[in-house]
Amino acid sequence: QVQLRESGGGSVQAGGSLRLSCAASGYTKRDFCVGWFRQAPGNGREGLVLIDSVDVPAYADSVKGRFTFSRDDAKNILYLQMNNLKPEDTAMYYCVARPDPYCGTWSPSDYKYWGQGTQVTVSS
Fold first, then answer.
1. Which pLDDT score, from 0 to 100, does residue 17 have?
2. Do the bridges between strand 67-72 and strand 77-82 make them parallel or antiparallel, or are there none, so unpaired?
3. What is the C-alpha separation between 78 and 75, in angstroms, rounded?
4. By the 8 A CB rule, do 85 and 122 touch?
5. Does residue 1 contact residue 72 with C-beta atoms inside 8 Å?
6. Max alpha carbon distance in the chain (Å)?
7. Under 8 Å between Cβ of 67 and 81
8. Strand, helix or coil at 2?
9. pLDDT tens across 38-77, in order?
10. What pLDDT is attached to residue 108?
11. d(CA 119, CA 65)
């Protein structure tokens, strides 16, 4: 069973940085697309970055140039480095996985596995 557990959220001022971590287990890298979504109060879930099985990333325009995905395959940890944070980045952040080696979709309903989320709050 795939399990995802996020950590690293918190409160920062605008312009600051945070690094989120996702401890992942129960999946094989070559068979899965993984990534990060977020959900702000009153909004739907928004895809931020998706990584296919050959480590080709795709970033949403809203975070391109500010957020960076990385992974430690030896430890099965996924990271999201977030720089130059803005108040509109305030949201619950989720690590996701999909049993398909290619991502190909930003629809939240296509991602079968979700972590419990970690809260990020950015103050102005």
1. 98
2. antiparallel
3. 9
4. yes
5. no
6. 41
7. yes
8. coil
9. 999 999 999 999 999 998 899 999 999 999 999 999 999 9
10. 97
11. 21
